[in-house]
Amino acid sequence: MRITYLFDPLCGWCYGAGPTLEKLSRLDGATLDLAPTGLFAGEGSRPIDQRFADYAWQNDQRIAQLTGQIFSDLYRERVLGAVGSRFDSGPATLGLVAVGLSEPARELDALKSLQNARYRDGRDNSDLGTVAETLTAAGFVEAARRVQVPDEPLLAAYQSRIAAARADMARFGVQGVPGILLGSGDRRRKIDSSLLYGDFDLLVAELRLA
Questions:
Q1: 72, 68, 73, 59: which is closest to 116 by C-alpha?
Q2: pLDDT tens-digit series, residues 8-52
Q3: What is the pTM of this model?
Q4: In 10 A of CB 75, how many CB atoms?
Q5: Closest to 192 in 3D by CA, of 208, 200, 203
Q6: Which among 10, 32, 35 has a CA at the least distance from the CA of 21?
Q7: Mean pLDDT of the chain
Q8: What is the DSSP code string of the chain?
Q9: What is the pLDDT of residue 16?
Q10: Is 181:188 a contact under the CB 8 Å cutoff?
Q11: Residue partners of 205: CB distance under 8 A and separation at least 6
Q12: Closest by alpha carbon to 191, among 210, 165, 170?
């Protein structure tokens, strides 16, 4: 069973799906491929203003109630409260790609560390320096070093992975993140991503039937 997970590290719903994602990664016979879409990077980034901050916090509370994931007051004050800063997933995505090049088996651990840094610890992972510090603290020393001065192979891998994920979104009609694809190569299909927030056994049953 091969599962492709389409996501963005600054997507609150993707953070909310974290516990389910960890269970999927431990499922017997399953291979989980992380596919960062860059949805909120580059042209998809934007400045944080008060209207956006209020909307994000309201949405985050819905996610917290549904999933039990923590969106701390530190996050609200230091990240959403930093009006004029950027909402840009490029740095965090670059950090994940760097981990994928050096320690691919631990990429999910790196995603969790970067998400926790933002939503629990109130650290702005739209900043490359913060991403590097977070990766260093989590033991991803080589990835942190490369993120601070991105080289051509890293930037090429970043562009390649985003392009592949966006191509999958277009091909399978995935309108937003998170998204799930099941299967390999041409034999893939889209799975209802709302299953990430319900009974895990129902999700597994759906995956095994697909």
A1: 72
A2: 999 999 999 999 999 999 999 999 999 999 999 999 999 999 999
A3: 0.97
A4: 22
A5: 203
A6: 32
A7: 97
A8: -EEEEEE-TT-HHHHHTHHHHHHHHTSTT-EEEEEE--TTSGGG-EE--HHHHHHHHHHHHHHHHHH-----HHIIIIIIT-TTSEE--HHHHHHHHHHHHH-GGGHHHHHHHHHHHHHTT---TTSHHHHHHHHHHTT-HHHHHHHHS--HHHHHHHHHHHHHHHHHHHHHT--SSSEEEEEETTEEEEE-GGGGGS-HHHHHHHHHH-
A9: 98
A10: yes
A11: none
A12: 210
Nearest-angstrom CA–CA distance, 4 and 189: 10
Q: DSSP for 117-163? A: HHHTT---TTSHHHHHHHHHHTT-HHHHHHHHS--HHHHHHHHHHHH
Gap between the Cα atoms of 101 and 144, Å rounded:
12
Spans of the chain, pLDDT less than 50? none
Please name which of 90, 84, 99, 83 lies closest in space to residue 9, comparing C-alpha atoms: 90
- pLDDT at residue 173 in the model: 96
User: What CA–CA distance (Å, rounded) separates 192 from 174?
Assistant: 10
Beta strands 31-36 and 2-7, pairing class: parallel
pLDDT tens across 61-73, in order?
A: 999 999 999 999 9
Whose tokens are 């492709």? That residue is 4
